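Tokens as discussed.
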């Protein structure tokens, strides 16, 4: 009680101090009223009013500090000034710049650990000022004995401190961000939160896994979202030995083109991987827009393959070993295909066994009017021979030619594997035989005379196609590339 009496007696003695305090309080109340009025009148944000109030209070505290000469009162004022400075810094840097400007307006992801580090550094800074300016304590005398205590605490909490340091390193190096799909050992999930001690990831099964940061810093990390969120998927499928590769690849390519999860403009392929004990195994490669869709994409494509193979008559064998007593199979009539091949200028003089091989292992495709066989600009590595019907050739949307029974197209893509230079569209119901480069090379080896004759036909036809180009520079460039590929394809060297 004696302390309070002494405080009020000193306050009464200092009449000037009381007058100054009353004036400052009055002015502060008036300014608060003005700010409230302006907020309602001009619809000012809460941030503007808060920061204005803080600056006004800081200004008058500084005014009081200069006018009042009582040391104990100056220390109280200094305490309030430090608190206001901390609040102003928090409003400007953390609330406005980081949270409002960067996160909300610029849509940038700021981890909580960054904000926590900034808060920690600022608090330590203000505590040091408080100790030195308000309490007049020598920081050296405080820090010297605390070094021993710090060493003891550090040894007992080395794992926790290691996680804290690892958390800071993760923020500096940024091997992953919030929202990235990562794999740590056998755990795969999306990063949901990065704190001082741990990183929280959420698996595809909606299970949260908390991983200490020091474990992350020592383990290998696979980031499926960097440098691009697009993710390449590899699938395998086994088919019967009776199904020719050109037929299998065509069936799977059609699925990849139509699937909603497959990125259209990215690399996709169907590769023959191996000959298994009961099946020929193919590898299907495609890209999806985000790792999250991996399970759904695989499910849809495998499901579509089952129906597509039923449609094409492709058998998926059981992965077991069985004794098969083969019955005599009823031969499929391929004579009509051979008759269609004989109308083609390439195979009109071919041997019977060559025609039979083509008819049996080529891929027969049926098209209705308006359906496209190939599309201008798309990649391809097969050629087509028209068995029945008529087909229009379109370049830039305009019909430039009509193909009929015996005609062929796609030979340039067959040789070089480049893009199609025209769209071929069915004019009336038609049938074509699709041949890939592997099948084509087999039949060339069967008949040397046929090989030389087809080489000459291809050479002549490609020459005419190239001459249609507008500039001499394009002509010479394409001649060099395509004719070199043509010679290699037929085994004639350079």
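Sequence:
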């Amino acid at each position: 009680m004696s302390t309070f009496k002494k405080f009020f007696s000193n306050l009464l003695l200092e009449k000037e101090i009381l007058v100054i305090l009353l004036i400052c309080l009055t002015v502060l109340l008036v300014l608060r009223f003005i700010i409230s009025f302006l907020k309602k009148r001009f619809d000012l944000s809460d941030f503007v009013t808060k920061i204005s109030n803080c600056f006004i209070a800081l200004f008058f505290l500084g005014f009081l500090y200069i006018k009042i000469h009582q040391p104990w009162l100056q220390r109280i004022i200094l305490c309030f000034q430090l608190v206001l400075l901390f609040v102003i810094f928090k409003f400007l840097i953390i609330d406005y710049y980081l949270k409002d400007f960067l996160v909300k307006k610029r849509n940038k992801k700021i981890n909580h650990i960054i904000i926590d580090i900034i808060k920690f550094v600022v608090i330590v800074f203000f505590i040091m000022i408080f100790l030195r300016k308000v309490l007049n304590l020598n920081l050296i005398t405080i820090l010297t004995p605390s070094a021993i205590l710090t060493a003891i605490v550090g040894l007992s909490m080395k794992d926790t401190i290691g996680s804290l340091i690892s958390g800071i390193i993760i923020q500096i190096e940024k091997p992953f961000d919030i929202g990235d799909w990562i794999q740590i050992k056998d755990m795969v999930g999306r990063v949901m939160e990065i704190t001082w001690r741990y990183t929280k990831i959420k698996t595809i099964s909606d299970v949260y896994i908390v991983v200490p940061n020091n474990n992350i810093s020592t383990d290998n990390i696979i980031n499926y979202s960097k440098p691009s969120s697009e993710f390449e998927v590899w699938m395998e499928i086994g088919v019967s030995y009776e199904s020719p590769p050109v037929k299998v690849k065509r069936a799977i390519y059609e699925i990849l083109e139509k699937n909603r999860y497959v990125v259209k403009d990215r690399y996709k392929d169907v590769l023959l991987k191996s000959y298994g004990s009961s099946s020929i195994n193919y590898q299907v490669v495609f890209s999806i827009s985000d790792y999250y869709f991996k399970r759904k994409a695989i499910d849809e494509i495998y499901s579509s393959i089952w129906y597509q193979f039923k449609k094409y008559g492709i058998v998926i064998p059981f992965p077991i070993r069985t004794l098969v007593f083969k019955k005599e199979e009823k031969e499929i009539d391929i004579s009509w295909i051979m008759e269609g091949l004989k109308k083609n200028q390439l195979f009109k003089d071919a041997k019977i066994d060559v025609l039979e091989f083509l008819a049996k292992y080529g891929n027969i495709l049926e098209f209705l009017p308006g359906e496209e066989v190939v599309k201008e600009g798309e990649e391809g590595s097969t050629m087509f021979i028209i068995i029945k019907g008529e087909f229009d050739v379109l370049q830039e949307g305009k019909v430039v030619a009509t193909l009929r029974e015996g005609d062929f197209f796609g030979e340039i893509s067959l040789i070089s594997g480049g893009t199609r230079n025209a769209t071929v569209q069915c004019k009336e119901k038609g049938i074509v035989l699709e041949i890939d480069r592997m099948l084509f090379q087999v039949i060339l080896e069967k008949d040397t005379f046929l090989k030389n004759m087809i080489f000459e036909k291809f050479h002549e036809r490609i020459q005419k196609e190239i001459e249609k180009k507008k500039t001499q520079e394009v002509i010479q460039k394409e001649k060099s590339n395509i004719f070199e590929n043509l010679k290699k394809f037929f085994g004639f060297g350079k």
